[in-house]
Structures are given as structure tokens and as C-alpha cells.
Design brief:
Elements lengths: L1 E7 L4 H8 L61 H12 L10 E2 L16 E3 L10 E3 L18 H33 L11 E3 L8 E3 L2 E2 L1 E12 L4 E12 L2 E11 L7 E11 L17 E13 L2 E12 L26 E12 L6 E8 L8 E7 L3
Parallel strand pairs: 1-16, 2-6
Antiparallel strand pairs: 3-4, 5-8, 6-7, 8-9, 9-10, 10-11, 11-12, 12-13, 13-14, 14-15, 15-16
Helix pairs in contact: 1-2
């Protein structure tokens, strides 16, 4: 496994201040108080996928320097810093009043690109260990090739981390925001969520958020929240499921969320999300029976918050040959399974990604990792390990 280590000591004061008016607003824990939303019990308000070295887009940089920072409905839900992503999620769940509060732009495919300073193709000759002795190394093999990104002063390690994390965030954050939009719609419509085990809130007709992707409105064919456990007074385990279409693409989402205290500020759960695209192709699928039937993009994010200063997630994602693929470990474990590699016509065939993080949400201080593998035939994965400290 190739590994790159990156240690950064940025100042996070503005991030901490922003989150005090964002995430903590839902529990009324900031000194200025604030309204509380019951939806916080059902949703992980600290969950968003962002590179820890990502700053806000230059065109909207001011949004991260004030409590009003948020992503607009027409903006993508990736390529932004963590604080802006979280603030937008909180505002979708904090007493929304109309469908417009639940709206966002959904991206239905990840991208797998490298920074220009990372792993350029390299022609070689007379390699003492090469087979053949002369040829061209494929993209990515030489790792961090330049110290900074081409045309900028940005460190190559940060540029590569941002590029890869933003690529997978296109898919992962789409699932997170879709689940948030479901709960937002329930709140707008005044639909009560179930409080006892076995209770179901059917939200198919109530899901009225304006969610668009590539010019196509997302049509929801099934949306519900089920209580799968209770303590005799309230629901203690929620499972939200959603199915829909966007043009020719099909989406399927499941989020299991388990609050571990009465306010819901401690919790654990898992989001699992697939997008089937009949027109997409994956080079490693060529020659299989499913080569002409499209691909299934799959992502799962297991998450846990044990205290106000400790949040952890593990993301697994892969591109599977064909449509209707089952990417998960089992019918009871909805983790995307790296062991389901391409065999015959099924299995993941390209760009398996694993991202992990254990950090303090208000400051971003903690440990992060990103690992990716181009295909199951590749003998190695590439990995970046990141440690963030406050100044």
C-alpha cells in the first residue's frame, strides 16, 4: 500500500464559532440559546463528507466567515468546507417552513480524478525490475510528484486529498442531504414520526422538496420512516428508506439512526445509498455480461458520536458492474462490501474508496484517512493519512 502522510496545524476559530450557531443550535447549548428541532433525534447533524484541507469555494468564501454561511439550493453539496456543509444540514432540519427549505441539487455520480501534481504518467526505459524494462507507468503510480499543485502554492498532498474527497463526496453527500430533505419535508408537512416499535410514517406523497439533478426532477416512488425499537416512551431506533428515479437513473437509500441519549446529541448509525445508471460505463466491466447494462454506484457511511468532542465515520464505496447489484455485506449489514470483487459479471469493478475520520466537530481537530484502489485486479491501494491540530 502506498501511503502519504500529511500533518496540518490550521487555525479553526471561525469554524468553531460557526458551528456554535449551527450544530449546537438544535440542542440550545450555545450561550445565545436557540430554537430546538425534534428532528435532531432522528438525524446525524454532524455527518458530512469533506476534505479536512478544503476551504470554501472562492466565489462564496464569505459564507464560512459568518453564521449565515450555507449552501444554496442551486449549489452542489461537495467541494465545500465541513462547517458550511453542516450549517446547511442544520438549517434544513431546524424548523423549516416550506419546501424551499428542503431543496438542494443532487449529484448522482462520483468522480475519480487526481490533482495534476499527483501521479502523472511517466515513460521509462531500462528499468532493472520492470516487466517490460521499458514502457509507461500508469497515472497515479508515482504518487506525490510535485511539492505543490500546478499553477498554485497549494501543497500537492492537500490538492490530491481535496480532489479525491470531493469526488466521492458528490455521491456520499447526495445520500446525506437526501435523507435530511426527507425529514425536512415531514416537518414542513406536519407529519409526526413514529414513537413505538413497528410504527411507520409513510412520506411518499409528502416528500415535496425541490430536488433536481442534471436538469431532471427527482421522482420519489417510496419514502418512509419506521421505528424499529423503543424504550416504552419514545422510539430509540429509526430506519428511513427512500426509492426514486431521476431520468433513467434509479436511487435507493437507507439510513438507520440510533440516538443514545434523550436529546439525540449522542448517536450511532449507518447510511447506505445506491445509484443505478444504465448509461454509465466502467472500463473494468468490459468483457462481462453486464458490460452494456450500466453500473451501480454504492456508498455506505457508518457513524458514531460518543461525546461533544468525538465523532467518527467510516465510508466505503465502489462501482459495481450492471444494475440491480447487491453491494452490501448481508441483508442485515448494509456496509458496501470490498470482498464482493468482480467475478464473472458481478461485483465491484472500479475505484473502491474507503475514508475514515475521528475528529472533534467544532474544531476539525483529529485523524483522517483516505484509501482508494483503481480496480480489484490492482495489487495495491493508495492511502493518505492526515492529522489536524489547532494552532
Amino acid at each position: 500500500m502506498q501511503s502519504s502522510h500529511l500533518q496540518i496545524k490550521p487555525a479553526f476559530q471561525s469554524v468553531s464559532a460557526l458551528l456554535c450557531t449551527g450544530t449546537l443550535l438544535l440542542t440550545a447549548s450555545c450561550s445565545s440559546g436557540g430554537s430546538s428541532s425534534s428532528a435532531v433525534r432522528y438525524f446525524p447533524v454532524d455527518l458530512a463528507i469533506a476534505s479536512p484541507t478544503q476551504s470554501s469555494a472562492s466565489s462564496t468564501l464569505a459564507r464560512t466567515s459568518s453564521p449565515s454561511a450555507r449552501i444554496l439550493a442551486s449549489d452542489p453539496v461537495y467541494g465545500e468546507d465541513y462547517a458550511t456543509l453542516i450549517t446547511t444540514l442544520v438549517r434544513m432540519l431546524d424548523n423549516p417552513t416550506s419546501a424551499a427549505d428542503c431543496a438542494f441539487t443532487l449529484n448522482l455520480a462520483p468522480t475519480f480524478e487526481d490533482a495534476t501534481c499527483y501521479g502523472p504518467q511517466l515513460t521509462y526505459s531500462g528499468h532493472p525490475d520492470g516487466s517490460p524494462t521499458s514502457g509507461t507507468l500508469p497515472s497515479g503510480d508515482v504518487g506525490l510528484w510535485e511539492s505543490t499543485e500546478t499553477g498554485s502554492t497549494e501543497a500537492c498532498a492537500a490538492a490530491q486529498l481535496n480532489k479525491r474527497m470531493n469526488g466521492i463526496a458528490k455521491l456520499a453527500n447526495g445520500g446525506v442531504y437526501l435523507a435530511a430533505s426527507l425529514y425536512c419535508s415531514a416537518d414542513v408537512e406536519g407529519i409526526s414520526l413514529p414513537t413505538t416499535s413497528g410504527g411507520v410514517a409513510n412520506l411518499t406523497s409528502e416528500f415535496n422538496a425541490t430536488v433536481e439533478t442534471e436538469g431532471n426532477a427527482v421522482t420519489i416512488t417510496s419514502a418512509k420512516v419506521t421505528c424499529t425499537d423503543d424504550d416504552g416512551f419514545k422510539c430509540t431506533e429509526y430506519v428511513a428508506t427512500l426509492k426514486g428515479t431521476a431520468g433513467s437513473k434509479s436511487i435507493s437509500l437507507r439510513m438507520k439512526h440510533v440516538p443514545s441519549n434523550s436529546l439525540g446529541t449522542r448517536y450511532a448509525g449507518k447510511l447506505s445509498y445506491t445509484v443505478e445508471d444504465p448509461s454509465a460505463t466502467e472500463p473494468n466491466c468490459q468483457g462481462t455480461a453486464d458490460a452494456s447494462t450500466g453500473v451501480t454506484y454504492a456508498v455506505s457511511i457508518g457513524y458514531e458520536k460518543t461525546s461533544s468532542t468525538d465523532f467518527t465515520y467510516k465510508l466505503d464505496s465502489g462501482t459495481f458492474c450492471g444494475l440491480g447489484e447487491d453491494p452490501y455485506v448481508s441483508t442485515s449489514n448494509y456496509t458496501v462490501d470490498p470482498a464482493k470483487t468482480l467475478s464473472g459479471a458481478t461485483g465491484w469493478s472500479g475505484n473502491f474508496t474507503r475514508a475514515t475520520a475521528n475528529f472533534e466537530p467544532d474544531s476539525g481537530e483529529g485523524d483522517y484517512s483516505l484509501t482508494w484502489q483503481a480496480g480489484p485486479q490492482d495489487s495495491h491501494a493508495r492511502s493518505m493519512l492526515i492529522h489536524i491540530e489547532q494552532l
